[in-house]
Amino acid sequence: MSEKKFSKKHEWVSLEGDIATVGITKHATEMLGDIVFVEVPDAGKSLEKEGQAAVVESTKAASDVYSPISGEVTEGNKAIADDPGSVNGDPEGASWFFKLKIKDKGELDSLMSKDEYEKFCKENPN
Amino acid sequence: MGVQKTALYDLHKSLGAKFVPFAGYEMPIQYKDGIVKEHISTRTHAGFFDVSHMGQFFLEGDETLVDALEKIIPSDLKSLKINHSKYSFLLNDSGGIIDDLIVTKTNKGFSIILNAACKENDIKHISKFLGKTHKYFLNNDLSLIALQGPKSVEILEKLIPGVSELKFMSGNNFSYESESLYITRSGYTGEDGFEISISNKKVKNLIDFLMKNEVKPIGLGARDTLRLEAGLCLYGHDLNEKINPVEANLKWAIAKKRKEVGGFNGWSKIKDLLTNGSEKIRVGIKPEGKVIARENTKIFSSNGEEIGFVTSGTFGPSVNRPVAMGYIKSEFSEIGTSIQLEVRGKKYEGKVSELPFYKKSYVK
Predict the structure, then answer these.
(1) Predicted confidence band at A1 (pLDDT cuts at 50, 70, 90)?
(2) Disulfide check for B353: which of A56, B9, B264, B284 has CB 3.0–4.6 Å away?
(3) What's the CATH code of the domain at B166?
(4) Is the same domain home to B79 and B185?
(5) Which chain B residues are closer than 8 Å to A36 by Cβ?
(6) Which residues between 52 and 81 in chain A have a beta carbon less than 8 angstroms from any beta carbon of chain B?
(7) CB B196 within 8 A of CB B145
(8) Element (DSSP H or E) covering residue A100
């Protein structure tokens, strides 16, 4: 898998061939608190870069998850929909949200590296 | 008026609290452990809540005071014994709920705990009904700490002997570090527990003792999930000035004698509703699956007719499912009725449910 890239909306994406895996960052889960509901997109759904893709709810509030890249969903992670609390445990690993077949690898260029993302989070604590 | 802070603000900060503005105060919504752990530790051990933003309102006066208060509070205050408390409301002319409150008979008159967001307005309203001989004041020198959970009694008894003898919804004066403090056995979580009225000077010492006994600090977030599991209303969400106690399914809180004799604001309206029923009523709601139906979620009948709306909804950590409350047309209010909840444009199945979702263990 490629190195992770990060969005300003606190999603991460990693690439294997033309299949991207997308999830939310550790920083996002820390801001959200205890996650109690997750809705992931079904396979076949077409997603636009920065378009609404999934829903995550904590005890406090509901938030949208956006796709950091365009493509067609190949799989939503049913395991996190069944056990939303698991997202707090391993958000950047087993608790990915969806995989999609991407159209344009070039879209990744506008995303941040891990270092850039960490700096972004420090500068934008909320 | 700027943002207000309670006497424990610095302590909350040192405990890693995340703050939110609430009713003009900076209040902790959660600490490091997070809402779910705070919720569970309250249910299994004990937690403390800084609720010093709430109004501690005192009334003093002769026997005419009770007549004045009974015009706006539908409790049987005349029969209320000293140190006994009742859950009740302030009512407007049409029977709408201006605030919900706990009123306690004291040896000088009454004390009332008011919601933080309502307290200034409440006092204006109450004062209109008082006579010249009646004294009233909001005591801002006092903090209010709720200690809630099954271990509360064992822990507080060690510090303040005698509290274990209090029955639910009663209180007394106790002495602590050469000060008098007032403790009631009550709360807002569905657990056994106490509310401790203590001077701003001494409150830190009390908290130090509680924390040495592994009582965790609990924020407003878990306070909300705990009260919702317990089926308790939150003013400004489940209750407001346009809702009356019959609609709110709180007619039990109007004294039997007062229902018959009346003599309080909005009685003619309330009397009519008690006889004929109300058009809508507050119910518990269990969404199917994991979807959370939050405030303002529209409720539909199984035929697709819009029949109500959600006023509070969250995930209940102890019942391990989403729970909600809302108002629904009375003909759909029977427990077990199938309903649909519109969340993000999609309809999800749900059922009208009994309240509370979580069974309480008060000491009677």
Answers:
(1) low
(2) B284
(3) 3.30.1360.120
(4) no
(5) 36, 290, 292, 315, 322
(6) 55, 57-60, 62, 81
(7) yes
(8) strand A98-102
Which residue, among B159, B140, B167, B170, has the nearest Cα to B46 in the 3D structure? Answer: B159
Q: Span B25-32, mean pLDDT?
A: 96
Q: Tell me, what's the pLDDT at B109? A: 96
Q: Which domain holds residue B322?
A: 251-353
Instruction: Say if the Cβ atoms of A84 and B221 lie within 8 Å.
Output: no
Nearest by CB to residue B221, choosing from A55, A59, A84, is A59
> How far apart are the CA of B294 and the nearest CA of chain A, in angstroms?
9
Nearest to A59 among B290, B291, B315 (CB): B315
Which of B31, B290, B320 is most worth mutating to test chain A (most A CB atoms within 10 A of its CB)? B290
Q: How do strand B216-217 and strand B47-50 relate by DSSP bridges? A: parallel
Please compute the mean of the pLDDT values over residues B48-69 and round it to a whole number: 97
Same domain, B198 and B278: no
Residue range B260-275: average pLDDT?
95
| Residue B238: CA count within 13 A, CB half-sphere | 23
Report the alpha-carbon distance of residue A33 to residue B309 in Å, rounded: 26
pLDDT, tens digit, for every residue of B282-328?
999 999 999 999 999 999 999 999 999 999 999 999 999 999 999 99
Instruction: Let me know: does A13 contact A20? Beta carbons within 8 Å.
Output: yes
Would residue B22 count as lying in a domain?
yes
CA atoms within 13 A on the CB side of B155: 24
- Taking the CA of residue A68 and the nearest CA in chain B, the distance in Å comes to 21
One-letter identity of residue A122: K
Q: Is residue B36 part of a domain?
A: yes
> Residue B360 corresponds to which tokens in the numbers above?
């309480």
The pair of three-digit structure tokens given for residue B101, joined into one six-digit string: 């409150």
Segment B181-198 shows an average pLDDT of: 97
Same domain, B181 and B105: no
Q: For residue B142, how many other CB atoms are within 10 A of its CB? A: 19
Q: Are residues B258 and B349 in the same domain?
A: yes
Q: List the B109-114 sheet strands across, edge first.
A: B85-91, B97-105, B109-114, B55-60, B135-138
CATH 2.40.50.100 correct for A5-123: yes
Q: Are both B84 and B168 inside the same structural domain?
A: no
pLDDT at residue B1 above 70? Answer: no
Instruction: Give the pLDDT of residue B2.
Output: 79
Following DSSP, what letter does each residue of B47-66 receive, concatenated?
EEEE-TTSEEEEEE-STHHH
